[in-house]
Amino acid sequence: MPLSRRAFLRATGAAVAAAGLPALAACGAPAAPATSRLTVAFAGLGPLDVPDPHVVWRPVDRARAAAVADTLLVWDQEMRPGPHLAASVGPDRTGTRWRIRLREVIAHDGRPLTPADVLASFRRITDPATRGTAAALLSHVDLDASRAVSPTELEIVLGTPDFLFPLVLGAPGTGIVRGGRGDAPVGTGAFRVAGRDRAVLTRHDAHWLGPAHHRELEFLVDDDEENRYRALLDGHVAYAHDLFPHSVRRILGRTGTGVVSTPGSATRFLEVVGTRRRSGPLDDPRLREALRLGIDRDELVRTVLLDLGTPGDDLFGPGLAHHLAGVPPVVRDVGRARELVTAAGVRDTTVPLLLDPFDPLSRRAAEVLAEQLEEVGLRVEPREPAPPDAAPVPGIRFRRAPAQPIPLYLRAAAQGGDPDPTVDDAGSGRRVTARPDVAGLLATAAATPDERARDGALRRAQALLRDAATVWSDGAEHIGVTAGLSGVRPARPDTGTWARFHRVRLG
């Protein structure tokens, strides 16, 4: 169960008292310079267990995993891969053999990390019993043929050519740990697991980027955004993840707290989910076009995101590498949308409008959207989504996808899965139609060493998906920070500077 605000603040205050530290002053005033524990708040349900770097469906799981276990590569703000644990990564001419050279880094047990640890970590991720977040991304790795070449080098063998493979090595859920033991992780991260309180991590003084500024890092979780907002203002946490636009507007201009916002962090879609028979009105492409032309994206962004975002252009990931830029915006055409609704046979028909269980803002968006679609003759009824084990419900659904490398997004879409890496698709019923045309272009991109040809194939694949869904906004991720907390940079989710708490200093 989520903590009530009172219980949340009481638990936070108790944690501070137990550490023998003064509580943070009201309204986010900075703690004393001697503070040795940094407390951060994320959405989610507790209690938190040992962080498993291979099972990271929630943002709090990914942040904790990044704290204890480094990945081989990291993504930059355009979602391109760059060095991290691996000093270099390079393919042979076929794109099926990749040579990886590790940095000389010391793990939490005081011993160097080895190529054997990398291979063992990959084995655990791909073991079906693990239900690893990145299992599908590593499915084409031939672990029997892959091998250690030297104490600091290994060769990864792929079953098919893949010049996009470096993206996988920076993905959430690919943290490298001693012996592949994700359930008892001994990694190389800036913090380590120590003590009985699994919500508190301890500084790894031998971290290869230098020790963190704080001795301890404490994670608190609460699914109530108002609780996270109040805990920040009351000084019980120094960092509050995923604040909503109305909280951001309340903070802006306030003394003692601030907001770090990163545009282009989340793309919000509207998708038409048809029937299994694919012969009903919801399967009519004219309904999809009516939805595209009938909504007012500007009003949705203004009303739901409070202008903290931009209207969508029906493509995922503006500002990311390989994005198909220069696409003309869709202009609202109520008359044409009404004609299409009539032609599709759904005029004055009530259609379910399925909320996104992972995006609370979809509730407010549903209210606005219902009014807009009524203008074009389409009635929608907001509904809760179907249970995870139920079959998909025909209707229009909201979906939010965080920023991620476009090739990985296209791969999930081509396979008919949910392109959101925070969603565990197994048994969820959240499936869409596979796209062999997109899959073909992805195969072309992966098979070519020519970067320009690869980029062209990926952009063409994006264009093919433009008619599959309506993007109504490209929004920001908002982090609330207390006064005196420095080092928190604007960063898209899961990039090398996102939720990296060894970089920050309080006081």
CATH class of the largest domain: Alpha Beta
CATH structural architecture of the largest domain: Roll
Low-confidence stretches: 1-34, 425-431
Mean pLDDT comes to 89
Q: Which structural category do the helix and sheet elements fall into?
A: alpha+beta
The main sheet comes to: 11 strands, mixed
Query: Whole-Å distance between the termini?
Result: 33 Å
- List the total number of helices: 12
Percent of residues in helices comes to 25-40%
CATH structural fold name of the largest domain: Dipeptide-binding Protein, domain 3
Structural summary, described in words:
The chain is α+β, with helices and mostly antiparallel strands and 507 residues long. It folds into three domains: 5-49 and 190-256 and 483-506, D-Maltodextrin-Binding Protein, domain 2, CATH 3.40.190; 73-180, Alpha-Beta Complex (Dipeptide-binding Protein, domain 1); 263-476, Roll (Dipeptide-binding Protein, domain 3), CATH 3.10.105. Helix content is 26%, strand content 20%. Strands 1, 8, 9, 10, 11, 12, 13, 14, 15, 16 and 17 form an eleven-stranded mixed β-sheet that branches. It has a four-stranded antiparallel β-sheet with strand order 4-5-7-6, covered by helices on one side. The two termini are 33 Å apart. The model is unreliable at 1-34 and 425-431 (pLDDT under 50).
